[in-house]
Amino acid sequence: MSRDSLPTIIQGGMGAGISSWLLARAVSKAGQLGVVSGTALDVILARRLQVGDPGGHMRRALEHFPIPGVGQRIIDRYFVDGGKAATKPFKAKPVPSEKPSKHLEELLVASNFVEVFLAKEGHDGPIGINYLEKIQIPNLPSMYGAMLAGVTYILMGAGIPRAIPGILDLLAAGQPVELRIDVQDADRDDAFATSFDPKTFCDGVALEVTRPDFLAIVSSHTLANMLARKASGKVNGFIIEYPTAGGHNAPPRGKQQLSVEGEPVYGERDVPDLEAIKALGLPYWLAGSYAEPERVAEAIEQGAAGVQIGTAFAFCEESGLEPELRDRTVEMSRKGTAKVFTDPVASPTGFPFKVLEMDGTQSETTNYNERARICDLGYLRHAYKKADGKIDWRCPSEPVDDYVRKGGDINDTVGRKCVCNGLMANLGLGQIKRTGELENPLITSGDDVAHVARFLTPGARSYKAVDVLAYLLRDVNTAPNDELGKLVTS
């Protein structure tokens, strides 16, 4: 990775579907690194097809999928001409498991291909895709799908992605790969894994793909040092996230303490040692409240290649967030009422999760209490070992009796929200519940949401990705970007 070619701005891979192909393409065309979210793309593709595939983008991308028959099988199963009735539930897709069916494997590979293909369409800029290490089961076929589309970078956090660099090496060589699964209640010598074979998937001859650069998302110099020295393959750089970054945050180091408001308290131990990270000799980007031109310049002066920005892009026009929710958020920011709560228990992962407080969403206690628990998407389920030695799955956000019956601690269920269904509702793809009601959104955001209205031009109610880029790069001495200039002034 040449330092001369490194982006100054990385547009973060925010919640499922928020970092859409439209957003990543806009950022990449403007000369920076656009990133799509790789989370839950299989269900997003299936639901986009069921609402009629507006614009025909999903079907167009599937027509370019390089393995014959796969795209058509997905279209035949999910596409609804004109879109399903608003009162009709979405057709279910298989829940992730350690041994996925052929259909689920095809859906995972193809959906990741589609998102990257569309993000890359019409330009030659770099495109990244973001995954969560904690969502282990879909990652192998998902990464291969992104590689089939020519993804430039793979970014991964929310865990310790030590095995991923070596897996990328093997996938690029067309070799079978295996990923060890974290299993609760397992013995020390147990070894549970999920696997993927490119050759088998490609009907006997693995297609040629290029290994993307791997950027690990970390919150401490200790983890960065371990990955640089002990990962299974080459780590090409780091994104250093501070606690104010949106989405899942690393928990505070040491014994957890909560503020009067009930949020985790971060201290000096949670501040990464940038000198130690710089000594590793790898490029790094800083994330978390860096969406100001002077902070971008400051990061570069400290030795960073640049910054990763999420929240500012999450509420721009190209974001995948449902337009009405996006417009409400920008208006809340304009009025000074936009506020984020770092919820220590909302996410089934156990990681602190930043939630935007908004009427009509799962952030409201009443809506949370009235929602009947269900786990029908299953991305954040935990694997556990049963008495017979086999794997099963449980989620702290599923019905409490079910979770306890599976050996889970009832205390783990308190305050847990259904992040999976909430994130789908954020995209306008929420499920219709058995009661006939629509799932409520659950919007995650960084602290900077309070100030996103600063990107509005006089009289405007919305802003674009290039408006964010022009603002951020105002004080940075970078080579002129003709494309960015044309987009900003058009």
Describe the protein in words.
- This protein has a single domain, classed as TIM Barrel, CATH 3.20.20.
- It is built from 18 helices and 15 strands.
- 31% of the residues lie in helices and 13% in strands.
**Main beta sheet strand tally, sense and closure:** 8 strands, parallel
Shape category: globular
Please give the number of β-strands: 15
Strand fraction: 5-15%
**Gyration radius, rounded:** 21 Å
The number of helical segments is: 18
Secondary-structure content class: alpha/beta
Low-confidence stretches: 479-490
The assigned CATH architecture is Alpha-Beta Barrel
Strand order of the largest sheet: 1-11-10-9-8-4-3-2
SSE map:
Elements lengths: L8 E3 L9 H9 L4 E4 L3 H10 L6 H7 L6 H9 L23 H19 L6 E6 L6 H10 L4 E5 L6 H9 L4 E4 L2 E2 L8 E4 L1 H4 L11 E6 L2 H10 L6 E5 L32 H5 L5 E4 L5 H9 L4 E4 L1 H4 L8 H13 L4 E4 L9 E4 L8 H6 L11 E4 L5 E4 L5 H6 L13 H8 L38 H8 L9 H8 L1
Parallel strand pairs: 1-11, 2-3, 3-4, 4-8, 6-14, 8-9, 9-10, 10-11
Antiparallel strand pairs: 5-7, 12-13, 14-15
Helix pairs in contact: 1-5, 2-5, 3-5, 5-6, 6-7, 17-18
